[in-house]
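Model the whole thing, not chain by chain.
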Amino acid sequence: KAGVTQTPRYLIKTRGQQVTLSCSPISGHRSVSWYQQTPGQGLQFLFEYFSETQRNKGNFPGRFSGRQFSNSRSEMNVSTLELGDSALYLCASSPRLVEGYEQYFGPGTRLTVT
Amino acid sequence: LAKTTQPISMDSYEGQEVNITCSHNNIATNDYITWYQQFPSQGPRFIIQGYKTKVTNEVASLFIPADRKSSTLSLPRVSLSDTAVYYCLVRYNTDKLIFGTGTRLQVFP
């Protein structure tokens, strides 16, 4: 069974631009969560989606948004990029909501904002 | 304020048992505590999960005291390949998912 895939793997953007990251979960998994990882802040929760509905959201500004499609694939969007948005963005999938179920992480998308 | 803290780093030798503690205030009674392992340039990998007392699988044990204000990941007989960063993950008030600060484990031969 194929693992979680994220595209693109690397991305360089300029301040003020917007970016869309994509995540394809493991087949059959209906839950997708997104995390931001930086050296200073560590791993931080962004969103959790289940069956196309956002179930939970972390403490990030409204510039960060996401969605999940009917095939469980998910995208996250960051508008008006800031230098501080440079990070590794990780997507994880789970058969059901995170609670009580193992999450499988993708390799991440490394975003650099210049 | 939800806070999940871990020791920054730990050193061990091959064959020893390693215990890594995660402190988490105010997690709900039925919320799970999950531990992940992360190698450089990779996403975290699931190790073990539980919500009370003790859970054991083929690679680790998880100890959770009755007050649930902390949890301890126990790695028996570590090897060089266990050198990685270890994170706990908890959910506060069935809402926010909070990762611990991470513990960098270095195993020496």
